[in-house]
Write a structure and sequence with these properties.
Chain lengths: ~240, ~400
């Protein structure tokens, strides 16, 4: 059963510190993201976009408010439950790729299957699936290369393949082109666009307006609040 | 998570820092090897001693004089003086049931000469013809003396194997005449090699009829008053089950003959079993010392493992963050690091075991000492290595499991 709304937050807040040092990194955010959307979360540093991304990515829980991911209430989950929901529903792409060093591209891609309790993939299925995904991102000939043998763009493409292996309901990308030259950056964006066209929901955090322009909607944050939501007409046709 | 995958990941992580991993294992390797080698040596020694003791005659009761109690015999009346006499042995043989053989022994120390060779302080054992049978000794050449020679005080000698070699080298000593103290004895036989048992070297002694010792090598003044003193009476029983009752009968008999009570008896009675038990208690003391040594080295090894695992957790914070982001639960992480610590200690245990086998073998080759590698010591050493791994691996592993994914991902 597919839920049309992938993300729904109600008055989401995250407060760090106590007393005088209390800081609300996220301060009452209520947003809805539907299946198939390509969202850019924008804002200057300190605007709370990283904190929001951690909460949406189930790496942290909010101090108050509600967060529903694919119809599941993730607001009060413990660490174990958060790990489970990350495993089933979320794929991550990080600015610094975050691949395991001295581990082949293929093993990096299949890593999430190791911890996936619902797919229960055996070694052979994992490998076939990892191979397919690496071919999809154009790295069919780099299966057994280790991260240090790959360029930044290639590493990020391995990370994209990894984010897809669990069939997530949403991909969270944190500055996916931040460490890349413009050529590799474009290639990564092209792959993300491709995924978007295939119906994958993407939430991308960026401070680069040119990159943000490729999303269907851009949510602008400022001081932990939603300052503006811009619908990008250019992409409505897709 | 698949256990084979966990093992593979842990094995790769250990393999990435080979030198460090081996250095970490060193404590465990040394600990385990030490346990196996030392237990092997003590077990080997114990087995050798036990075999020698039982080899020297089973079902034996040793009755020996209590020198501390008797005092100078000449100063006392015959009835109250201590010590065994030859007639006591005869009485035991005749009056106690279930005794299959009685042998007496009285020793002296004399200079022995054969041709130009002269040996000082040779132990001269005056015995009776039953001695080789009771002590399970065999003749190499010639024969032992018989009852007739004992009765007639014939001047004959039987040599221990070492003594024979020292006196005559490769030549056959049988028929040769040797000087013992002030008299001359004819060699009639040489005993087969027996070995050293309980600090007595049976092969370096000279055996002669006890009557010869009484007449030539002991002060006959006292003998006239109270009979010929003997140092030791060996009583061989026909059935070990009855050994306790035979000991009691001997005690009662000797108390009557020495006109004293059981409590004041001037002889000490021990059995083969007592000797083995005493030997066992020394080895068990030795073993508990070894246990402490092993315990300390395993403890040190365990602390080494904990230390390296803590370093490893810090170094791999980023990796832990990545694994958590893609769905690893805290217990997945805990399990992985526990497996790594366990693998370190178990591999260390296996290497230590091999080192232990090798060391035991080298030791037995180099020192001619026997070593026995017992399965129990392997199990013990290996088991404690594994326990050490679990115990000292838990703290670093739980530290890894408690890392916050966000902080772990940000870690540089």
């Amino acid at each position: 059963m597919e839920h049309p709304v992938v993300i729904e937050t109600r008055d989401l807040s995250k407060i760090y510190g106590v007393g005088d040092t209390r800081v609300a990194a996220v301060d009452g955010i209520s947003i809805r993201i539907e299946r198939g959307e390509f969202i850019a979360v924008m804002g200057p540093s300190g605007s709370g976009k990283s904190t929001l991304m951690y909460i949406l990515g189930c790496l942290a829980t909010p101090s108050s408010g509600k967060y529903f991911l694919d119809g599941e209430d993730a607001s009060d989950m413990n660490r174990r439950e958060l790990a489970f929901i990350r495993s089933r529903k979320i794929g991550f792409i990080f600015q610094s790729y975050n691949l395991l060093a001295r581990t082949t591209a293929l093993r990096n891609v299949t890593l999430p299957l190791l911890y996936n309790r619902s797919l229960r993939a055996d070694a052979k299925t994992s490998e076939t699936r990892g191979r397919e995904l690496l071919e999809q991102v154009g790295l069919g000939d780099r299966l057994h290369h280790q991260p240090h043998e790959l360029s930044g763009g290639q590493q990020q493409r391995v990370a994209i393949a990894r984010s897809l292996i669990n069939d997530p309901v949403m991909i969270i990308a944190d500055e996916p082109t931040g460490n890349l030259d413009s050529h590799s950056g474009e290639e990564v964006m092209r792959i993300l666009q491709d995924l978007h066209r295939k119906g994958v929901t993407i939430v991308m955090v960026t401070h680069n307006p040119r990159i943000a322009a490729e999303a269907t909607r851009a949510i602008h944050l400022s001081d932990g609040r939603v300052a503006d939501i811009v619908r990008n007409e250019l992409h409505e046709g897709h | 998570m698949n256990p084979i995958e966990i093992l593979r990941i842990s094995w790769e992580a250990i393999g990435r820092n080979k030198v460090r991993s081996i250095l970490t294992m060193l404590g465990i390797i040394i600990g385990v090897a030490a346990v196996i080698i030392m237990v092997a040596i003590s077990a080997g020694t114990e087995a050798t001693i036990q075999e020698n003791i039982t080899g020297l005659g089973s079902n034996l009761i040793f009755v020996s004089s209590n020198f501390s109690r008797g005092g100078p015999p000449g100063m006392m009346t015959a009835s109250s003086s201590g010590g065994l006499v030859f007639d006591d042995a005869t009485a035991i043989a005749e009056e106690v049931d279930g005794v299959s053989a009685v042998v007496v022994e009285q020793s002296s120390s004399q200079t022995v000469k054969a041709g130009k060779t002269s040996l000082e302080g040779v132990s001269i054992q005056g015995t009776t013809p039953g001695f080789p049978a009771v002590r399970d000794m065999e003749m190499a050449t010639g024969r032992y003396f018989n009852d007739e020679e004992v009765d007639r005080k014939t001047k004959v000698a039987v040599l221990g194997s070492t003594l024979a070699e020292e006196l005559f080298g490769a030549a056959n000593p049988v028929g040769q005449v040797i000087g013992v103290g002030s008299i001359k004895l004819t060699v009639i036989g040489v005993l087969a090699e027996k070995g050293t048992v309980g600090e007595i070297d049976y092969d370096s002694r000279l055996y002669t009829p006890i009557t010869v010792v009484f007449e030539k090598f002991t002060d006959s003044m006292f003998a006239r008053i109270r009979g010929d003193a003997v140092r030791m009476v060996y009583v061989k029983v026909s059935d070990t089950e009855t050994i306790d009752s035979i000991i009691l009968q001997i005690k009662l008999l000797l108390a009557k003959r020495h006109k004293t009570t059981l409590d004041d008896l001037d002889v000490t009675i021990t059995t083969q079993q007592d000797v083995i038990t005493a030997q066992g208690s020394t080895t068990s003391a030795f073993r508990s010392l070894l246990g402490w040594v092993a315990g300390v080295s395993l403890l040190v090894g365990g602390i080494g493992i904990m230390n390296i695992m803590l370093v490893s957790v810090t170094e791999r914070t980023r990796e832990i963050g990545i694994r958590q982001a893609v769905g690893a639960t805290p217990s997945d992480i805990l399990l992985q690091f526990m497996t790594e610590a366990l693998l370190l200690s178990v591999v260390g245990g296996i290497l230590g075991m091999l080192a232990g086998f090798g060391g035991s073998w080298i030791f037995s080759q180099a020192s001619a000492m026997r070593t026995v590698v017992s399965p129990a010591s392997i199990l013990l050493a290996f088991g404690s290595a594994a326990v050490v791994g679990v115990f000292f691996g838990f703290y670093p592993a739980s530290k890894a499991a408690q890392l916050e994914p966000i902080e772990a991902l940000r870690y540089e």
